[in-house]
């Protein structure tokens, strides 16, 4: 004896409730899809957009091109943003370079960073919207305004990268160095992103009906995924080392003093280094027309003095062509407060601001006496005077006279950097610590009695530093002001660094990134394994779902003449129970009213497509 008509009616009513719940969920989901499509293509109304039919491409050829351009723009803007953010160590040099060319001060470096971040955020938002729309099975349509925005972003990224690569090619070395610190975290982020992308990729992969398209999609995805998985095998970082092998922190040498806290190359600047506990002082020495060595980095006085006010007709004259009585009249501190090159002047105490306002040009003799008083080592660049200068041929001996006869410093506190007449200098004063500004073979360095190397941080090499240290030749790296670079120099074994940010770096008690090989392995292996497992689950789920939908579609065709009718929804063709019982008779009055909600829902669903 079969089931009664009442039982069958209850079962069908239960099915109707399920369908109704699904439709309601879909209907409630529409505002989210509308928001996505509206932001991406200005398609705020349902009739303006369409779902991707099974087996078809997610968009037209033009929109495929737009989506590809969006991906390319995202990648290029990401590269430039990362490149410029990691170049932050040298922003001050970039700004002063522009000052020398444009004639006025402006923080171009920060503005460029903000613009790059804004463009990247814009294309990232568009890419996220596109991925969400693909995950919802929607066809892509990018508004023409966004297409223009993408082209502007792409042009900016290409031009900025090309110009900066030409002017500051060494910054690419900085970028490569940064990977030794950031690569482990970039690897985790990249794997996470590829894992998230597996959902829309699997969804469309199993809906494609062209094998070539499937092969290309899967090939690209798997190639990128496995490249990310294998990144840790080729990663090198001096900060991934066995426990107990980290050496002492590099000692800190103030670059032109403490230029973030006081005007560079002034008495106040060097006293700030002493207060902060720095071990050395670095400066630049020029000889005045009447033979007084003084501290000045630039060839002219325009940037760091008020020469425009005192000597308006000699603004661009060489600093070495001024005599000392003229130099004494200049203010060497007011510019620091008005231009605020590091953005730190506003944080100074009122007493420090007043003191900075009244700094004067500092002499080499006073500089050496300050170092001698506090027992600090000194290192300086010595500029040869121009042609026609009385001391053009005796600038070395004049500087040695100040060291030996006019100051109280000991010769072994001086790291002698000038390479000119080095043999003569060694003969006159063997106690000076001979320092070279370039790398050479150990034999060549030992022949020149070199005890220290002064190298740009971009040439940092743990192997080279260790090799030189084995023969008692120490390495100083300049100019390092970012904590991540200082951490890298620490891990590489550098004995000292020259810095603008001594007050910041002195607070580091350990490198920002330090990990044993075993701990790093525990970090990346589970990441790759979990990612692979999740991606496999996602692909299996979509394969199962699409296989089930295909089976359901074939079953539906077989029942077209049965007791079912269909109506259109946003998700797919959903089959609803008609007002006919299993026995071919109309449903009783008890059940029929309950089915009206489905009809109402169908009407609501249809009207929701209208504007």
Task: Characterize the structure shown.
It is built from 21 helices and 11 strands. The chain is α/β, with parallel strands linked by helices. The chain has 4 domains: 1-32 and 576-611, no CATH class; 52-169, no CATH class; 172-243 and 517-569; 251-505, Phosphatidylinositol (PI) phosphodiesterase (TIM Barrel, Alpha-Beta Barrel), CATH 3.20.20.190. The strands form 2 sheets. Strands 1-2-4-5-6-7-8-9 form an 8-stranded parallel β-barrel. Helix 2 (61-86) runs antiparallel to helix 6 (171-205) and helix 4 runs parallel beside helix 6. It is elongated, with a radius of gyration of 36 Å. It starts with a helix and ends with a helix. Mean pLDDT is 86; it is low at 23-28 and 557-611.
Please supply descriptive tags for the structure shown above.
single chain; 611 residues; alpha/beta; two-stranded antiparallel ribbon; 21 helices; 11 strands; disordered C terminus; GP_PDE_dom; hydrolase; glycerophosphodiester phosphodiesterase activity; transmembrane
Our count of helices gives 21
- CATH architecture level-2 label of the largest domain: Alpha-Beta Barrel
Secondary-structure content class: alpha/beta
Over all CA atoms, what is the radius of gyration? 36 Å
Number of domains: 4
From the 3D structure, determine the CATH topology of the largest domain: TIM Barrel
Give the strand line-up of the largest sheet: 1-2-4-5-6-7-8-9
Helix fraction by DSSP (H/I, runs of at least 4) = 40-55%
Largest sheet: 8 strands, parallel, barrel
User: For this structure, what is the CATH homologous superfamily of the largest domain?
Assistant: Phosphatidylinositol (PI) phosphodiesterase
């Amino acid at each position: 004896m079969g089931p009664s008509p009442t039982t069958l009616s209850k079962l069908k009513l239960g099915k109707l409730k399920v369908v109704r719940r699904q439709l309601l969920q879909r209907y409630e989901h529409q505002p989210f899809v509308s928001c996505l499509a509206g932001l991406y293509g200005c398609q705020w109304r349902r009739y303006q957009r369409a779902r991707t039919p099974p087996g078809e491409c997610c968009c037209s050829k033009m929109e495929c091109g737009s989506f590809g351009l969006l991906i390319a723009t995202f990648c290029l803007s990401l590269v430039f943003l990362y490149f410029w953010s990691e170049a932050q160590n040298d922003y001050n040099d970039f700004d002063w370079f522009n000052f020398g060319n444009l004639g006025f001060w402006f923080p171009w470096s920060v503005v460029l960073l903000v613009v790059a971040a804004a463009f990247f955020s814009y294309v990232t938002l568009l890419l996220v919207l596109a991925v969400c729309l693909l995950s919802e099975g929607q066809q892509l349509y990018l508004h023409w305004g966004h297409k223009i925005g993408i082209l502007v972003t792409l042009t900016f990224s290409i031009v900025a990268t090309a110009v900066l690569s030409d002017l500051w090619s060494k910054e690419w070395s900085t970028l490569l160095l940064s990977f030794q610190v950031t690569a482990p975290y970039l690897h985790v982020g990249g794997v996470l992103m590829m894992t998230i992308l597996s959902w829309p990729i699997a969804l469309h992969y199993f809906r494609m009906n062209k094998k070539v398209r499937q092969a290309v999609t899967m090939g690209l995805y798997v190639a990128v995924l496995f490249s990310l998985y294998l990144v840790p095998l080729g990663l090198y970082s001096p900060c991934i080392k066995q426990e107990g092998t980290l050496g002492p922190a590099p000692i800190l040498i103030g670059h032109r003093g403490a230029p973030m806290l006081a005007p560079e190359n002034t008495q106040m600047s060097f006293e700030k280094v002493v207060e902060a506990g720095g071990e050395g002082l670095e400066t630049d020495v020029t000889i005045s027309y009447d033979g007084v060595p003084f501290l000045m980095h630039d060839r002219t006085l325009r940037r760091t003095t008020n020469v425009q006010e005192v000597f308006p007709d000699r603004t661009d004259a060489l600093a070495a062509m001024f005599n000392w009585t003229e130099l004494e009249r200049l203010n060497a501190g007011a510019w620091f407060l008005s231009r605020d090159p590091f953005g730190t002047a506003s944080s100074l105490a009122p007493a420090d601001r007043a003191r900075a306002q009244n700094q004067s040009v500092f002499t080499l003799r006073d500089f050496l006496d300050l170092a001698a008083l506090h027992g600090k080592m000194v290192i300086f660049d010595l500029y040869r005077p121009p042609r026609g200068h009385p001391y053009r041929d005796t600038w070395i001996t004049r500087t040695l006279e100040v060291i030996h006869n006019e100051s109280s410093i000991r010769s072994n506190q001086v790291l002698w950097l000038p390479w000119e007449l080095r043999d003569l200098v060694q003969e006159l004063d063997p106690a000076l610590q001979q320092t070279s500004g370039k790398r050479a073979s150990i034999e060549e360095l030992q022949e020149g009695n070199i005890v220290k190397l002064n190298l740009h941080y971009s040439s940092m090499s743990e192997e080279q530093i260790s090799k030189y240290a084995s023969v008692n030749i120490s390495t100083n790296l300049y100019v390092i002001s970012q904590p991540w670079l200082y951490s890298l120099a620490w891990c590489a074994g550098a004995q000292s660094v020259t810095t603008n940010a001594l007050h910041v770096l002195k607070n580091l008690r350990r490198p920002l990134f330090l990990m044993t090989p075993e701990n790093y392995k525990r970090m990346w292996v589970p990441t790759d394994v979990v990612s692979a497992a999740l991606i496999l689950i996602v692909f299996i789920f979509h394969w199962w779902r699409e296989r089930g939908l295909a089976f359901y579609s074939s079953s539906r065709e077989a029942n077209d003449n049965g007791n079912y009718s269909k109506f259109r929804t946003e998700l797919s063709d959903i089959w609803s129970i008609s007002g006919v019982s299993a026995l071919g008779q109309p449903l009783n009055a008890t059940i029929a009213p309950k089915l009206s909600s489905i009809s109402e829902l169908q009407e609501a669903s249809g009207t929701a497509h209208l504007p």
